[in-house]
Amino acid sequence: MPEFPQMRLRRLRDSEAIRRLVCETEVNAGDLICPLFVSQKRSAKQEIPSMPGVYRYTVDSIKREAQEIAANGIGAVLLFGVPDKKDKLGSAAYSHSGVVQRAIAAIKDKVPELLVITDVCLCGYTNHGHCGVLDGERIDNDRTLELLAKVATSHAEAGADMVAPSAMMDGQVKAIREALDDCGFSHIPIMSYAAKYASAFYGPFREAAGSAPQFGDRRSYQMDPSNVRQALREVELDIAEGADIVMVKPALAYLDVIRAVSDRFEHPLAAYNVSGEYAMVKAAAASGWIDERQTVLEILTAIRRAGADIIITYHARDAARWLSDKA
């Protein structure tokens, strides 16, 4: 191999045109999914204090937001519901008149080309804040599967293009796949939260969705942050059960997991750049400690470089605009 001075790697960094020519990793607006919160409790959209620039929308106001998202070149949204009533079984999650079901119909009526993906879980709908049916203070895995299947089919009936189970129950993908197929929705893909960690980065989301557990924590079903091999097992099982896309969540502290999954499996891979990661960037930028645009684009590039094909991020709207400016 030639040595200095013949070999000068800086030659390929000398100008923006050269850097663009040899760029190894690109992020495009079409790679992004924008999470949206839709609430039955509000008469107007409301900003979430811990997530500046992110709102809880009403069914009416979410239609305009969906139009703007599509106009920015973002191809998909991920819906989370905030119901007005909760109970121990999270029944509002699978009600045909539920807030997510109504929002799906509203978005598809207004922006039919926008891909509508729905989160399938119970934590935002149960009065105890856990992701499944309780047996004492433990989660009954198999009884929960029945309800998750009901949630997914109700979303498909409302017009969802894809469902995304996030409860981390064993067998959830298989139960949902079978339910969708039995109800005539064999064409609906499943994006599984296959490796979802019990992370400290979820705090702002739990404020936004009102989904904090009322007792204990979620470590008996979400993954231990210290484990990588177990993540590969989770992904392998979800693929075997019928997942069309698999996900790692969170993204930034788990880039090694994203890389391991990407290297091991050929399935499309999503990574969730979660609320705490978003909030830290916004807080630091508001204090003038970092350049928000450069930081966000660097973060998204790192997630793509680690192996993610798809990035779910609250930065999606700003990032799409900044990426358009770069084009």
Explain the overall architecture:
- By secondary structure, the protein is an alpha/beta fold.
- The chain has a single domain (25-326), classed as TIM Barrel, CATH 3.20.20.
- The protein has 11 helices and 12 strands.
- The protein has helices at 16-21, 59-71, 99-110, 141-158, 172-182, 203-209, 229-241, 255-264, 275-286, 292-306, 316-326; strands at 32-39, 46-48, 51-57, 76-82, 115-120, 133-135, 138-140, 162-165, 191-196, 245-249, 269-273, 310-313.
- Strands 1, 2, 3, 4, 5, 8, 9, 10, 11 and 12 form a 10-stranded mixed beta sheet that branches. Strands 6-7 form a two-stranded antiparallel sheet.
- Helix 4 packs across helix 5 (172-182).
- It starts with 15 loop residues before the first helix and ends with a helix.
- The mean pLDDT is 95.
Task: Briefly say what this structure is.
With 327 residues, the chain is α/β, with parallel strands linked by helices. Helix content is 39%, strand content 19%.
Structural class: alpha/beta
Strand content: 15-25%
Quickly count the domains.
1
CATH topology: TIM Barrel
Task: Using the CA coordinates, give the radius of gyration.
Answer: 20 Å
Helix content: 25-40%
Q: Can you summarize the main beta sheet?
A: 10 strands, mixed
Distance between termini?
Answer: 35 Å
**Number of helices in the DSSP assignment:** 11
- Stretches where pLDDT falls below 50 for ≥5 residues? none
DSSP strand count: 12
CATH level 4 superfamily: Aldolase class I
What would the principal axes of the Cα set say about the shape? globular
| Overall pLDDT metric | 95
State the CATH class.
Alpha Beta
Strand and helix order: HEEEHEHEEEHEHEHHEHEHHEH
